[in-house]
Design goal:
The chain is of the alpha/beta class. Helices cover 27% and strands 17% of the residues. The longest helix has 16 residues.
Length: 222
């Protein structure tokens, strides 16, 4: 899920000053595990909004150091199997989440429908798929896939990253046996290092326990 459901705990959470410096506990994954590939979708236009998202001033993957170290261990295991991780999104500023919510509210903007939500009306995305607070803004959630090192191609997961459709559910019955195996391979690599999967999105994982369970940060990615 792009966001998470708003509850009383969310309203009690701390949102840091948007101009505050990045906390020292946040690191660039390139400094911890440089072999992990990056395709930071919200820095460019190849995403469901169709434009660079607020708060992304560089195509970097930033994470809390605990999540970064755990992800480095996942990468080490993947490399032994001839695979490499590719990250699509890591820490996400609150202002980026706000950008998503504004986009959902603009029902006239439908340019990306065919690729990202072909079977849904845009109006239903708010709530089930996009919400006003995201676990990514806590710094220990990551969206990613696996790439075969021999071919250089992403494994076939049965749906694209950020496809708003039940087919993106990890166990959707419409995918092939090979696509399911690929999803399970990613899931097993991640859960072995303490990341919890999200059943509605095969690409989405959060470190447990969260270093900042009740804090939503808003410093920019630069």
């Amino acid at each position: 899920m792009i966001g998470c459901v708003i509850g009383a705990a969310v309203f009690a959470s701390v949102i840091l000053n948007p101009v505050a410096a990045k906390p020292s506990e946040f690191v660039a994954i390139a400094d911890i595990a440089p072999s992990i590939q990056k395709d930071i979708r919200y820095f460019g236009r190849d995403n469901f909004v169709g434009t660079t998202i607020d708060g992304y001033l560089a195509p970097k993957c930033l994470l809390h150091q605990d999540a970064a170290k755990a992800l480095a261990k996942v990468q080490k295991k993947a490399l032994k199997q001839g695979m490499t991780l590719k990250v699509f999104d890591c820490y996400r500023p609150q202002r980026a989440v706000d950008h998503f919510v504004r986009w959902v509210s603009d029902t006239s903007a439908q340019d990306t429908k065919a690729h990202y939500y072909p079977n849904l009306d845009k109006g239903v995305l708010l709530g089930d798929y996009i919400a006003a607070k995201s676990g990514h803004s806590r710094g220990a959630t990551v969206d990613l896939t696996l790439v075969d090192m021999a071919s250089g191609e992403e494994l076939d997961m049965g749906s694209a990253f950020d496809m708003f459709d039940p087919i993106s559910n990890t166990d959707d019955p419409r995918i092939s046996a090979q696509q399911r195996d690929n999803r399970y391979l990613l899931r097993d690599l991640m859960t072995a290092q303490g990341f919890a999967p999200y059943a509605m999105e095969w690409w989405h994982f959060s470190l447990k326990p969260q270093p900042y369970p009740d804090t939503y940060f808003d410093f920019v990615v630069r």
